[in-house]
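Write out the 3D structure for:
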Amino acid sequence: MLLNRLPKYCVLTPVGMHKLYALDFYFDGINKLNHKPDVVVLAPDHEVYEEVDRLASEKLTVPHITLKIRFEGEKGSLKRICKAREELRKWFLNSKHGWALWIDSDIVLHPDLPAKLLEYALRNKVLSIFHGYPSRRYEDSHRIWHGSGIILTHRYACQLARFMVTKFKNMNISEDFNFKSLLKGANPLVKHMFGFTTIVDLDLLPVKHYAKPKSKPITYNPINF
């Protein structure tokens, strides 16, 4: 695996104020990646903008940008996380980057995972890969999520889909479900006309999810499944 032959990419990460406990864990994981991002773009809750930007400046060994966004709604709400992801998507499309790796602020990847995801996407003409990570109740259910916690996206994928919260009766449909559904819906047309697969779920290497404060990060190793 020749890292200098792989395309450059950026990392996109929303940071809720209820997730500050995991930031050291997250920053350390970014610093240990073998194929490093050109830049890490953070979208924190406005109440913790200065703190997140300061910590990123102190801890990260790669360049970073902290977006200044004004949020409405309660901390940790779907409305806030949706806006953060959507602002990151817009930033990505206005940048010169061809690829973005979305990583939640409580997740750490295996150091080789960005390179492996890019290799797979290029070899198989895939526009987005949703990598598995352990759910918050993984120890009880061993449930694996393929949501927005870890996504590799080409810019075409972020042109095809956006993040939005919708409603069915009294139930909120989350922003990552809608983003993924739009990509799935576009696949037949994009595959037929251009030869690209818009979306795959894929589990390649171990990842850690620091899902709860004052608890140990949960490790998911696909080899064990």
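The helical segments are 23-31, 49-59, 78-94, 113-124, 138-141, 155-160, 175-194.
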